[in-house]
């Protein structure tokens, strides 16, 4: 059994995110995730997945519910969850208690063929969890200003950011600092995987646009 390291950290990260949010965490599946699980580009929908560790087989199991998009979406959601989080179900805490994982909604949207903003983001195998909740109204600085901070997040195998680097300034030190502050606090991902299917460190590159009037 895995008692320390990425499995426990990843499970705790998801559990704490679920507890802090009024609704279920949503993993926004990427184009790379589609390739990983073999889901066709035209498929779209979502499913709520529940992961458990089967003591008899000593293997993770997945159940998909509230499915929109048919069986292909359900199968793809469970496959993605098992690949990226199955390792965490084997984790136990320091008291030997099985580490529980919260239910997770996995959403699949059709790829943006126009690619309007695709050049701005490079997930490096990471799957963002509820990115629309990373920034709260209270995070907006009181000063007026607008601009886009381009950044790189170093992300640990647990799915939590470990460092934030501004690669192109929004033209305001305040906005750049706030960008890294909120991303380090709220950023959360399903991990990237190495060639052996194990969670690995990765970098998430994107930009955050601010418009404060």
Written account of the structure:
The structure is a single chain. By secondary structure, the protein is α+β, with helices and mostly antiparallel strands. It has one domain (about 5-210): TolA/TonB C-terminal domain (2-Layer Sandwich), CATH 3.30.2420. It has helices spanning about 5-20, 30-35, 70-85, 175-185; strands at about 25-30, 45-55, 60-70, 105-110, 125-130, 145-155, 160-170, 190, 190-195, 200, 200-210. The strands form 4 sheets. The protein has a 4-stranded mixed beta sheet with strand order 1-4-2-3, covered by helices on one side. Strands 7-6-11 form a 3-stranded antiparallel beta sheet. A two-stranded antiparallel sheet has the order 5-8. A hairpin with a 5-residue loop joins β6 (about 145-155) and β7 (about 160-170). α2 crosses α3 (about 70-85). Residues about 1-20 have low confidence and may be disordered.
CATH class: Alpha Beta
Helix content: 10-25%
Largest sheet: 4 strands, mixed
Mean pLDDT level: 82
**Structural class assignment:** alpha+beta
What is the overall number of helices?
Answer: 4
* Order of strands across the main sheet: 1-4-2-3
Radius of gyration: 18 Å
Please state the overall shape, judged from the principal axes of the Cα atoms.
Answer: globular
Named CATH architecture: 2-Layer Sandwich
Q: What's the CATH topology name?
A: TolA/TonB C-terminal domain
Tally the beta strands.
11
Total domain count: 1
Give the CA-CA distance, first to last residue: 53 Å
Unreliable sequence segments: 1-21
| CATH superfamily membership | TonB
Strand content: 25-35%
H-E order = HEHEEHEEEEHEEEE
């Amino acid at each position: 059994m895995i008692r320390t390291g990425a499995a426990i950290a990843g499970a705790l990260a998801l559990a704490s995110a679920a507890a802090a949010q009024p609704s279920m965490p949503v993993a926004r599946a990427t184009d790379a995730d589609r390739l990983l699980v073999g889901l066709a580009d035209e498929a779209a929908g979502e499913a709520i997945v529940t992961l458990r560790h089967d003591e008899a087989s000593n293997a993770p199991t997945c159940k998909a519910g509230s499915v929109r998009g048919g069986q292909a979406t359900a199968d793809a959601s469970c496959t993605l969850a098992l690949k990226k989080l199955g390792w965490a179900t084997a984790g136990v805490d320091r008291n030997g208690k099985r580490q529980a994982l919260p239910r997770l909604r996995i959403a699949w949207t059709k790829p943006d063929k126009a690619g309007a903003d695709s050049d701005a983001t490079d997930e490096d195998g990471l799957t963002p969890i509820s990115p629309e909740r990373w920034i709260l109204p209270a995070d907006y600085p009181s000063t007026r200003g607008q601009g886009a901070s381009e950044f790189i997040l170093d992300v640990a195998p647990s799915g939590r950011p470990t460092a934030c680097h501004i690669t192109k300034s929004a033209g305001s030190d305040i906005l750049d600092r706030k960008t890294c502050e909120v991303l380090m606090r709220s950023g959360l991902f399903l991990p990237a995987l190495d060639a052996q299917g194990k969670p690995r460190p990765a970098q998430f590159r994107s930009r955050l646009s601010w418009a404060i009037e």
